[in-house]
Write a structure and sequence with these properties.
428 residues, elongated, mainly alpha, Serine Threonine Protein Phosphatase 5, Tetratricopeptide repeat
Length: 428
């Protein structure tokens, strides 16, 4: 039994071995098939898988793996597949490019030759092969960008930038050697990385473009956003640079507004939002945001006991919500926020009422009852706004909770039960 087992093992090893001659033959045959495929990708589709299998199997041979020229053949074979599929897509936009991953494999093959060979001819062939791959990568990136597949577009475009660096280091011309083409390519690479949420991967390209000088405000918006998301202090530096270079760009303005929102710098925000409103007077979201900022200022002042200032901010907030509704009568955010203004004004009296609840003197009782009545008045003023908000968005949980609480204070328990049931249904 042992002899049989050993015999079988020897047989398996023999079958699994590819000698130099077989490897070279497989590589040449596979490369020929892929070249034929490239001439007509739709008509020669049966050549693709077998051709790829043969050229990759060839590299199981140590002799093939040991010669640089065969890596050039491998990269060229991969390029042939890409060329065939890209040409087919030019003829038929619905043709699916299924072998885009071969571009990176082609780069690896050519780069291995460039970094290891002493033969000038092999190196020149590898550089020429990279030049072709660079063009394929650019086309692949364009297709993906047009499909809004930004993350994939970034990977293709960025690989092309890598090729440019290799070619440049070897004094070889690249399509990106032209300054205008390079800046255009870097911009689309950075934009694809930003839109495709590639995060810090996109930063080197964006910073390269920023250092070379750019007329694209999106570069600064992207750098700010990515660094801000990663809690990097460079974020505000790029935001300030962008705002200085492009003071009229709304994308950067709104990025700045969002930044100050996260920082809670409400006083700064008001000026920024009013500036945004001058640029986009019909943008209801700016009016709503201004209303929210003034509401936050109102609550801050009310909590500090500055009632007069709080009321001033309250009126400002209400005014901006009214401007929203003048443009969009069914704007849910504005209607809900108006109700919330009165609701929060009522809630702000809670602590004072609770303190007075323990004062049983005539004056204490009088103040307690007056504040309770005042609170009820504010809740009554909030009610119609929440009822209107309910008609706009019947299943909004915040609206239903507010209505339940108001009816509970009005001691209308049938209404409380109705809203409790709806809230329970929504919460599962």
């Amino acid at each position: 039994m042992r002899k049989i087992a050993l015999g079988l093992l020897s047989l398996f090893l023999l079958v699994g071995t590819v000698d130099a001659q077989e490897g070279k033959k497989a590589l040449k045959k596979g490369a020929k098939m892929l070249s034929k495929y490239a001439s007509n990708a739709t008509g020669n589709a049966d050549q693709l898988d077998e051709g790829l299998m043969l050229v990759e199997k060839a590299f199981e041979s140590e002799e093939v793996r040991g010669e640089d020229k065969y890596y050039n053949m491998l990269g060229t074979a991969y390029n042939a597949v890409l060329e065939g599929q890209i040409n087919a897509k030019l003829i038929d936009p619905n043709f699916p490019i299924t072998k885009g991953d071969l571009a990176a494999k082609a780069v690896d093959a050519f780069e291995k030759v460039i970094s290891e060979t002493d033969d000038k001819g092999d190196k020149k062939d590898a550089l020429k092969g990279l030049e072709a791959t660079e063009n394929h990568l650019n086309n692949l990136g364009i297709y993906k960008f047009q499909e809004n597949a930004y993350a994939e577009a970034f990977d293709y475009f960025n690989k092309s930038v890598e090729i440019y660096s290799i070619l440049k280091a070897n004094d070889y011309e690249s399509r990106l050697s032209d300054e205008v083409t390079r800046k255009d390519h870097l911009f689309y690479t950075g934009a694809a990385g930003y839109y495709g949420q590639k995060g810090m991967e996109a930063v080197p390209v964006l910073e390269m473009l920023e250092k070379e000088g750019t007329d694209k405000p999106l570069v600064y918006e992207a750098l700010f956003t990515i660094y801000h998301e990663n809690e990097n202090p460079s974020a505000i530096e790029y935001l300030n640079k962008g705002r200085e270079a492009f003071p009229d760009d709304t994308g950067l303005l709104f990025a700045e507004i969002n930044y100050y929102l996260t920082q809670g710098k409400l006083d700064v925000l008001v000026d920024k939002l009013k500036m945004a409103l001058e640029k986009e007077p019909d943008n209801v979201s700016i009016y709503n945001t201004l209303g929210n900022v003034y509401d936050q200022l109102n609550q801050q002042e009310r909590a500090a006991g500055n009632t007069e200032k709080a009321d001033e901010y309250f009126n400002e907030a209400m005014g901006y919500y009214e401007q929203v509704l003048a443009k969009e009568p069914e704007n849910f955010d504005a209607v809900y926020s108006q109700g919330a203004l009165y609701y929060n004004k009522a809630a702000s009296l809670t602590d004072e009422i609770n303190e007075l609840a323990n004062d049983f003197s005539n004056e204490g009782t009088k103040k307690y009852n007056a504040l309770k009545e005042k609170m009820s008045g504010y809740f009554d003023q909030a009610l119609p706004y929440f009822l209107k908000a309910e008609t706009i968005s019947p299943d909004d949980l915040n609206v239903l909770v507010a209505l339940r609480e108001i009816y509970a204070r009005k001691n209308e328990m049938d209404k409380v039960a109705e809203y409790k049931s709806r809230i329970d249904a929504l919460q599962g």
